[in-house]
């Protein structure tokens, strides 16, 4: 029925013995449905303590009235759009969707609408101020670059991490990984002590690889440190002695004049740095070679 319309309805009432019937006119006037009324419209502010506001905690109640006592439904948008808050569709309670110790934003703007079956009231702005926010864990000494001799032996300490968190909630150990997973076996990560060590002797051969990149992070149970803070490990060249293909060589040679009989030892010698090699032969019991 269109709002503002008026209808006259004639009603007759009679019994079997009464005549004429009693008549009465019923006047029906159609009035417009009134929208819900939100208290504190158009805006309000609430302040919460991040350290004490758990997931699904109620932080605000959108109070309202509806002239016809219609059922009212609520919807909400938020900025920044991090999906950190929800609103009860039928009750208007604003709740946190996360434990606020995971929040990194100091202020949110929630825009709320209330609708009955006919009308919608939009544009109610709730500002949420977040105090006492959790501090993101960090490493005091990353990013960093260190140089390690290629002769470093097993358990040689390459680096000691210094993690820092002013408000640690759930103590956790750091976690480190090489950017090339194949290099993981070359390092030992002693996280209880925050140390990165050489895993075994001759693990860091400069002639094989010069630089390693290690990413480290850690969490307080809610926030995680910046994963781009890396440790760069440069392998320092150490001049290593030439290496023979064997420790002993044997050769049988027949008697003969000088420059005559000969035999091949089939010996090879390699220098790790590919430097030039000078080979000399020293004898112990026969000076005629």
UniProtKB/TrEMBL annotation:
It is found in: Membrane. One of its GO terms (molecular function) is beta-catenin binding. InterPro entries: Cadherin (IPR039808), Cadherin-like_dom (IPR002126), Cadherin-like_sf (IPR015919). Its main location: membrane. Residues 22-139, 140-244 form the Cadherin domain. GO terms for biological process: cell migration; homophilic cell adhesion via plasma membrane adhesion molecules; neuron projection development. It comes from the Eukaryota. This is Cadherin domain-containing protein. The gene is ORF166547.
């Amino acid at each position: 029925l269109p709002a503002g319309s008026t209808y006259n309805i004639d009603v007759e009432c009679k019994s079997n013995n009464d005549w004429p019937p009693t008549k009465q006119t019923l006047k029906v006037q159609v009035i417009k449905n009134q929208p819900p009324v939100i208290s504190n419209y158009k805006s309000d502010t609430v302040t919460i303590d991040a350290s004490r506001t758990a997931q699904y905690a109620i932080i605000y109640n959108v109070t309202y009235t509806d002239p016809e006592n219609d059922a009212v439904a609520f919807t909400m948008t938020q900025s920044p759009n991090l999906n950190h808050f929800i609103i009860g569709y039928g009750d208007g309670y604003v709740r946190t969707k996360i434990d606020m110790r995971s929040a990194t934003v100091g202020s949110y703007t929630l825009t709320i609408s209330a609708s009955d079956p006919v009308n919608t009231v939009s544009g109610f702005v709730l500002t949420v101020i977040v105090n006492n926010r959790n501090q993101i864990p960090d490493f005091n000494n990353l990013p960093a670059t260190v140089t390690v001799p290629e002769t470093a032996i097993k358990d040689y300490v390459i680096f000691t991490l210094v993690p820092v968190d002013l408000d640690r909630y759930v103590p956790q150990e750091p976690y480190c990984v090489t950017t090339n997973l194949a290099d993981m076996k070359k390092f030992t990560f002693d996280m209880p002590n925050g140390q990165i060590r050489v895993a075994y002797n001759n693990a860091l051969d400069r002639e094989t690889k010069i630089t390693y990149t290690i990413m480290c992070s850690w969490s307080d149970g809610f926030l995680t440190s910046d994963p781009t803070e890396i440790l760069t490990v440069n392998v320092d060249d150490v001049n290593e002695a030439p290496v023979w293909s064997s420790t002993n060589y044997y050769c049988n040679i027949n008697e003969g004049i000088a420059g005559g009989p000969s035999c091949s030892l089939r010996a090879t010698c390699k220098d790790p740095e590919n430097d030039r090699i000078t080979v000399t032969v020293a004898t112990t019991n026969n000076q005629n070679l």
